[in-house]
Each structure stands twice: as structure tokens, then as C-alpha cells.
Amino acid sequence: MKTAVLISGRGSNLQALIGAGIDIVLVISNVPDARGLGRAKKAGIATAVIDHKDFDDRETFDQAMTKAIEDAGAELVCLAGFMRILSDDFIKHWWDRLINIHPSLLPDFKGLDVHQRVIDARANQSGCTVHFVRPEMDSGPIIMQATVPVMANDDAGALAARILVQEHIIYPKAVKLIAEGRVSVEDDKALIDGSPAV
Ligand code: GRF
Fold this sequence. Notes:
The chain is α/β, with parallel strands linked by helices. The chain has helices at residues 12-19, 35-42, 58-71, 88-93, 114-120, 156-179, and strands at residues 3-7, 24-29, 47-49, 76-79, 98-102, 125-132, 142-149, 183-186, 189-192, 195-196.
């Protein structure tokens, strides 16, 4: 399944998708010097910089991305550290074909600065979630999660690193399941091979 990946920065999840042999036809970054662009180029994958600063509003920025994704023939769009809020129109256009990875056990700890908030809340576990994107941020049918322990002496960096290892495992796994046609959505819940995903 031809896949587009949207990034804004480091691109370690992009690297995991590349390493897993996902058929990535385009990597888009809204940040011109995002480190992930170099990873894509090294792997021989087409890249596009679509800088939100060049657009008057979110809608025209999103339309430019949709055009680039469609021109590349992608059928699935993966957000991988993409740091822009997407318009409802973009999300509706790519409904059930747009997925994200978030570094918490959703629905807990949506939004930014996740790891420090998990530590401050004295949670004893955290993790990561792959989900279909819906207009409400960090919501949407959950496809896959992985759990890690939170250690007593963790700082945000240590916890982030432990979770990132799991992100790199579950994101490619989830994309492969979708590519194999094994993921469906019913009543806004994800099913794998017809059974509840989580
Ligand atoms: C990851 O932690 C991901 O869960 C979050 O942003 C981070 C991106 O890291 N959405 P990378 O750019 O993939 O290295």
C-alpha cells in the first residue's frame, strides 16, 4: 500500500517505517531543515517541503499537502512527529486512511509535554498508541498500543526514550496490518481481523 509520511523533525519513526519495508512514496515536511528529510533521501524516497509559513491559512496549506499526496499515488497517510494541527477538511478527506502515533496510552495524556505530565501524575505505566486521526486532537479509533513501566527515578527524557523503542515496533506493525487489509473501523472502533483492536 503506497504510503505518505508527514514529519516535522527528527524522523525516527519514519526511519522505523523505512526499515520495515513500508512502501513509502513520499515524505512531506513542513519544516525545511527537518532531520527526517535526510533519512528519506538516503533511502531514495521522494521528499517535499511544504512550509506552512508559505500559506495564508491552514486550509490552503492542507490542500497543498493533499495534492502532493495524491500526485504521489499514496493511499495511506502516516503522521510521524508532524507538529501542525490539521484542518477538519483534511481529516475528513483522509478519513480512515490517516493515522498517527502518540507517545502515551490514549485516551490518557493527549497533547504535548506528555512524559513530564505522566511523571507528575505518578502514573506507574505509560506507552504509545497508533490511532486513526479524528478532528479532536489525539482521539480516534485505536489500532495498537504498547505499554512500558514508569520507573521511580525517570525524567521525561528517560521515559520518552523507553517509549520510543516501542513506537518503532508498533508503528510499522500497525501500518503492515492496514496494508494487508486486516484493519477495519466499525462504530468508530478499530477492528483487526474482525475483532476489537484493543
Ligand atoms: C514521537 O514520540 C511521536 O510519538 C510523537 O512525536 C515524536 C516524533 O519522533 N508524535 P520522531 O520524529 O519520529 O523521531
